[in-house]
Write a structure and sequence with these properties.
Elements lengths: L1 H11 L19 H18 L2 E6 L7 H15 L3 E6 L14 H4 L8 H9 L3 E7 L7 H9 L12 E7 L9 H12 L5 E8 L12 H11 L2
Parallel strand pairs: 1-2, 1-3, 3-4, 4-5
Helix pairs in contact: 3-8
Length: 227
């Protein structure tokens, strides 16, 4: 009863408007509810199109070029109306897989570090974008370590379908990222509902933040916007 009285008092305290709907020259009573339903359907459509996206930046270097690609992908996906989260491996504690396979029974790794938390998020997302520098023509060691540590997903259901790979390197040959791409395809092949949906490589960048002003940043934004 107190709640009702409170609500009633709040309603009575609202200032009345001078012009009613019917007196408003812009009010169309015949199409009012159609307009309301149309707005509602538009909101529903936007929610249906929204995807859960995770961007995993694996570089540990301050001012990392691949991390800057990741930021642009993140912004593009977010501007497209998606629910986007970026995970940086900077400061994360992710130890090597021991190969004990206990994760196949437990559904999680027995090593108590940051890998389990990241894996839980990856399992519940629709789009996963990896960003890595190319080391010796391959993905970074920390990226591969995280992939190995998420082995507990193998026997479980997962939501991710589209996987993207963003790479940078000092070498600008177009073949430079191919082994890293093949390595990530090895991961997606083990999760047959997923696929490597897109890749982006920026070569010729070696020093920190050398990628600034590079058109590949805009390409990363557009790629993120297209997910």
């Amino acid at each position: 009863m107190l709640l009702y009285n409170f609500a009633h008092d709040r309603i009575k305290s609202i200032e009345p408007v001078d012009v009613t709907f019917s007196e408003n020259p812009d009010f169309d009573p015949e199409h009012f509810f159609d307009d309301v339903i149309g707005v509602s359907n538009t909101v529903k459509q936007k929610n249906c199109n929204m995807k859960k996206v995770i961007v995993i930046s694996t570089s540990l270097r301050h001012g990392s070029n691949s991390d800057m690609l990741a930021d642009q992908f993140f912004l593009g996906a977010k501007d497209a109306g998606n629910d986007v989260e970026k995970i940086s491996l900077v400061g994360k504690n992710i130890r090597f897989c021991k190969g004990c396979l206990a994760c196949q029974k437990l559904g999680r790794c027995v090593i108590d570090d940051d890998a389990n938390g990241i894996m839980e998020k990856v399992m519940k997302t629709e789009v996963v974008a990896w960003a890595t520098p190319i080391y010796y023509y391959e993905m970074s060691g920390q990226m591969k370590t995280l992939i190995d540590r998420m082995n507990a997903m193998y026997e479980q259901d997962y939501l991710f379908r589209d996987v993207y790979l963003l790479t940078t390197a000092a070498d600008d040959d177009e073949q430079t990222p191919k082994r890293a791409e093949a390595g990530l395809t090895g991961w997606t092949d083990c999760y047959p509902k997923s696929r490597l949906a897109g890749t982006l490589f920026c070569g010729g960048v070696n020093h920190a933040r050398e990628i600034e002003g590079n058109p590949k940043l805009q390409e990363a934004y557009e790629l993120g916007k297209s997910v």
